[in-house]
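We emphasize that the prediction below concerns an isolated chain of 220 residues; any contacts that depend on oligomerization or on bound cofactors are therefore not represented. The input was used exactly as deposited, without trimming of termini.
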Amino acid sequence: MPETIIRHASKTAITLMAFAIVFTTCMAFVYQVTKSPIEQSEAAARMSLFRQIMPEHLHDNDLLQDTIELPPDALLGTTQPTVANIARVQGQPSAIILEAIAHDGYSGDIKLLLAIEADGTLNGVRVITHKETPGLGDYIDIAKNNWIKLFDGQSLNNGKDGDWRVKKDGGKFDYMVGATITPRAVVAAVHKALQYVEQHKQTLFVAQVDDQHNAPMEKP
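Result of the prediction step, given as a token string:
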């Protein structure tokens, strides 16, 4: 009887092991088959977003491939390294696309994507993710309202620091009545991102070299 039980247990274990191997192999195959289409879809979506804020005349390089790693920085609101995309014309840097996070939104973090030229001019800003109240604070989303385009063409040279506030706080940026916290957070985050680029422009806007792609930016 014990031997029968042992043989039965052994067969069961072998069967389960074989099933696990087959299942793992199938999953690996499915992953490899679907990996490329998924990556292509994600790249296409990101490039579509880039086109909204980066004019074609400002780059002749592959924006998705020309990248630099940025260390965490308080001005960007980041706590983990992020990847920025560099726009170039004939190898010379013309602009940068980077992410920033506003941590003081009404309903949590607001993640932004900004395109900033080498001279510090904002080409555009888009909200990537947010949890703001539908029908109230969500007008920061380009799909809901054109408010975010107020940043187009802005720079640190346009006025004084005090202008980088909503009008309710004495600044120059419009807002919708009843939804002040959200735009206040976005304006502050954009302002800080411009300050970040100004402080690091000597490192961010460097001529192209062979090992530039995905190179981490040195900490000051």
